[in-house]
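pinging the channel bc i need a second pair of eyes. not urgent but kinda urgent?? the chain im working w is below, pasted from the shared doc
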Amino acid sequence: MTAVAWAGPGIELFIDSPGREATIRGQLGVRTVPELRSHLQRVLAAGDGDLVLHLREAEVADATGLGVLVGLHQRARRQNRRLVIAEASERLERLMRITRLHLVLARVDGLHAAGPPPLGGGLPQMPPMPGQPR
């Protein structure tokens, strides 16, 4: 069930699966990030396991847009969770390659709550957190 969790000028956050999956539409930038960040932190706190963030219709306008993704990734790791970027736009993929965030942020194309990832494939494996068994 998808519900609008928050809407600001030029941006919307939809909850696709509480605590597990969300979609951002619009521009992530200096004007939208502060409030969006707090809503995303609540989404993260409401679940466990991977948090899949769909970004097909999101545009990262500036460094603060990338910063909110990095901050959410770090917060997820502290909660023994993983942020997974799904359906990133070509521009966002380019920005992640340029900044080398593609080596840090887990990404997947087309994953949605409608079904589990395919057997033997699915989400990329992240190295274990320090102090955790493999």
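so Residues 63-78 form the longest helix (16 residues). and Helices lie at 33-45, 63-78, 90-98. — does that match what u expected or am i reading it wrong
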